[in-house]
Amino acid sequence: MKISEVREMSIADLRDRIEVEQRNLDTMKINHAISPMEDTSKFKKTRQDIARMLTILAEKEKQQN
């Protein structure tokens, strides 16, 4: 997910998307434990996306206050 796409999202949308991505990461980890994935770089990309969204969420919440 691109940073420009994340910046356009509302706070509620960001929270929902973060929750979905965290569940997706957990599912990927469980699936990887059962049968190893060929492309493990998806873990890193997902973690980076979550961190990016959390950063933008914090910025937006700070601007509101």
Please specify the SSE layout and strand pairing.
Layout lengths: L2 H6 L2 H24 L6 H24 L1
Task: Characterise this structure.
The chain is mainly alpha-helical and 65 residues long. It has a single domain (3-64), classed as Helix Hairpins. α2 (11-34) runs antiparallel to α3. It has helices spanning 3-8, 11-34, 41-64. The chain is built from 3 helices and no strands.
List keywords for this structure.
about 60 residues, Helix Hairpins
Overview in brief:
The protein is mainly alpha-helical and 65 residues long. 83% of the residues lie in helices and 0% in strands. The protein starts with a helix and ends with a helix.
How many domains is the backbone divided into? Answer: 1
User: Into which percent range does the helicity of residues fall?
Assistant: over 70%
Query: What string, H for helix and E for strand, traces the elements in order?
Result: HHH
Number of DSSP helices?
3
CATH class: Mainly Alpha
Second-tier CATH architecture: Orthogonal Bundle
Low-confidence stretches: none
Oligomer kind: single chain
Sheet-strand content, in percent, reads under 5%
